[in-house]
Every structure is written in structure tokens, then in C-alpha cells.
Fold this protein.
Amino acid sequence: MPTQVEISTHLDLDQAAVSRWLNDAGIDWRATPLDDIRVAYIRQIRAQAAGHKSASGDDLVAERVKTERVQRELMLLNLHEKQGSLIHVEQLKPMYSQMVGAFKTEVLALPDKVKAELDALYGINVDVELLNAHVRAALEQLSRYDPGDPAAADVAGAEPAPA
């Protein structure tokens, strides 16, 4: 079997480069014939020349495919945004905040409305603070709601805390 010096002379490389290449290629130079080593080296050079492999051995075709996939996804997102079927979360935040604020205002107004209707329809004098306590407890419970929490389903049907 050839020595690394003989291999380096045969491949026209310095001995350190041959040593690194043999190690990277996983070739046991002590057990591999010189012809097989030469063929492996030629195949690596061809792959590099064809643009399939980098000098460090990375698969450039796979990297190009990944890059093109990301570019395609970015273009699709851009297209959907221009078509109006996709918007940024930052655009939604002010609208969502206004909607939640309006909802809270309506819910907080419920006890007074319910009290007025019960007084008028049935002549019952209901303590509005009792109704307010239940509404505030429900809003407080909702403010702690976390959709990412598996226990969130329990929170939705939970009894409001006593006032």
C-alpha cells in the first residue's frame, strides 16, 4: 500500500493536504490501493467543479434547494400580503385593543341595564353591586386566560371568584 508521501506525489498535492483529505473522505490509506484513492479524489474534484460540493464537502445542491424554498415562501408571503389575505400582527394590535376595550365597556354596563330591567319588569330591587362583582370576577378570570396553557379549557368554564 502507498505512503501518504507517494499519494501526495501522485495527486500533485502536499502531504498535509493529502492527510486532511484522506481523513475527511474517510479513506484508510494503509488499506486502499493507490488507484482507488486517485478515483475517489477525481470524483471529489468533479463534484466540486460541477458545483455539487464545496471544498469543505458541503452539498451545495441541497443548500441551493433550501435557499430557493425560503425565497419561494417569502415571495408567497409577500404575494398574500399584497392580495390583502395576510396582514402584520402589528396592524392588528390597535384594532384588537379597541375591540377588547369596547367589549369590556359593554360587559361592565350590563349590571346597571339588568338591574333597571328587573326593577321595571318585576319590581324586584336587585343589588347592582352583586351583579358588578360577578361581572368583574368574570373579566378578571378572562384576563388571566392563556390559550397556550393546557389548563385554559378549565378556566373558561370556571365559576367566578366570590366578591
